[in-house]
Amino acid sequence: MKQIEQINKQDMKRRRNDIIEINKLRGKENPHAISVQMDGMYNNPLYSGVGRTPFQPATQTVYTAAENETSKHNILALNIKNKLCSKHSSLDVDNDSGRLHEDCTDECSANIPMVKSIGNEYTWARECLLDLKEDAIEIEHLVTDADSSAYKAALDLHNEGINNVEPENFLDTRHLSDHVRKGAKSDKTL
């Protein structure tokens, strides 16, 4: 598993360098300032437990940052969070380590405690943005869905002086059109 992770990280690093080189060839003033789209996916929709449970039903999330510089939209940063332990069935959380079972090692597939919010998009986005910063990439334009806190994470990194480029936020057309369609359907005056 660690070898697969390492290969993926090397591949994303290569893709990041490729984007910088493409921007240099295009004559972009700051080739390290790029446009990305970010979003998270969950193994269960976060809203699926509404009214049935006070807990979030999802236990796994994948948060991605894909470049918007080329038509390939390569994934440049990936953040995977998992509350489930692949070795133990116990749902007991060890208070010291945050792991599901006190006997788990670093090879445990759970990398966040059961009590932590899986829908913490701000933190997952911030971790992706800091990962991009390690290769001197900063976000110039950020495409997100309307309820995303990824833009807040990018703006905070700029305001904290970590990133020099102030990001600009755009809403993705699929989520925006869904929002407009639902609003039109529920508007009784139309």
Brief account:
The chain is α/β, with parallel strands linked by helices and 190 residues long. It contains 4 helices and 5 strands, in the order αβββαβαβα.
Describe the protein's architecture and organization:
With 190 residues, the chain is an alpha/beta fold. It has one domain: Nucleotidyltransferase, domain 5 (2-Layer Sandwich), CATH 3.30.420. The protein contains four helices and five strands; from the N terminus they run αβββαβαβα. The chain has helices at 2-25, 121-133, 150-159, 173-186, and strands at residues 33-42, 60-67, 75-82, 138-144, 168-171. It has a five-stranded mixed sheet. Strand 4, helix 3 (150-159) and strand 5 (168-171) form a beta-alpha-beta unit. Helix 2 crosses helix 3. The longest helix has 24 residues, at 2-25. The chain is globular and about 50 Å long. The termini are far apart.
Highlighted features:
single chain, 190 residues, alpha/beta, Nucleotidyltransferase, domain 5, five-stranded mixed sheet, 32% helix, globular
